[in-house]
Amino acid sequence: MSKPIKSVAVSIGLGFSLLASSLLAPSVAHAEGEIRIAEQFGIVYLLLNVVRDQNLIEKHGKEEGIEIKVDWTQLSGGAAVNDALLSGSIDIAGAGVGPLLTIWDRTHGKQNVKAVASLGNFPYYLVSNNPQVKTIADFTEKDRIAVPAVGVSVQSRFLQYAAAKQWGDKDFNRLDKYTIAVPHPDATAALIAGGTELTGHFSNPPFQDQALKNPKVHVVLNTYDLLGPNSPTVLFATEKFRNENPKTYKAFIEALTEAAEFAQNDKGAAADTYIRVTKAKIDRADLLKIIDNPQFEFSVTPKNTYPLAEFLYRVGALKNKPESWKDYFFQDAKPLQGS
Predict the structure, then answer these.
(1) Of 227, 250, 272, which residue is a domain's last?
(2) How far is CA 152 from the centre of its chain?
(3) Over the stretch 151-185, which tens digit does the pLDDT of each residue have?
(4) Residue whose C-alpha is closest to residue 115's, from 96, 137, 133
(5) In the record, which residues are listed under signal peptide (predicted)?
(6) Pairing between strand 114-118 and 233-237?
(7) E strands, the chain, in order
């Protein structure tokens, strides 16, 4: 008899709601020389781990002639991250392309939130411990699929994109009723343990790799098969922060670029950084094997984000149509050559 996971999810959700509420408290606008960054869980945030570990923002700030105070916050789910950004509680938001497009659309002509950079290119897996589920068409009312944020997270958007390919645009949200918001670490633990109604998890590395170590867990969908190599996770900010803090913003971009070069060129040191900063309980050899995946690319340049943006406008999830990826990415002194 399966145990319901709803009570677990509710308690988790309440915890993050309280955290989000604390972040939503009114904050005083700050001057040049301070930056508040929100990240989430997983290897996809490794560039931020490197930036933090090596104090790269502070380093590049000094090159700009300023001392920069950096504040780090960890949240779960694009909805909480977006709320924190719009409340003025954070300056740089780390989340999926899905939440980026949602907030870009919502603030178009107002706060004008846009992406600052990509965090790299990584395949995301939809995994399941239900042997009957071979494709997304096999999920039923008995299944629940964990995502970071229902309907908004990039995992939710990938699932909608896959549903539209399977059943047509009119049924793009056909699987939404099976999704439930659970942070990646908790969803992974539940999937491995089994015995609950949570039988699917749209994950990211290293959690998807940890789940797949259980022989009862298998891949249902690979986002690279769905869209090709793409940048699922990005960083974004308001136009106001970018315009009012040019030196701090530039120092952040330079720090991120340096971190990308470091992670891409020294996978061993990158693995050590991830373990040191996140305190993750993962074997170094296993982590290095994940990071050394030839499909992984640590880069600030966005790749193949526009198909998702075009899809979301087509099905009515976006009111404003982006003509290209450049509409929702800031173009700086060194413009990104992305897609």
Answers:
(1) 227
(2) 11
(3) 889 999 999 999 999 999 999 999 999 999 999 99
(4) 96
(5) 1-31
(6) antiparallel
(7) 34-39, 69-74, 92-96, 114-118, 125-128, 144-147, 179-181, 198-202, 218-222, 233-237
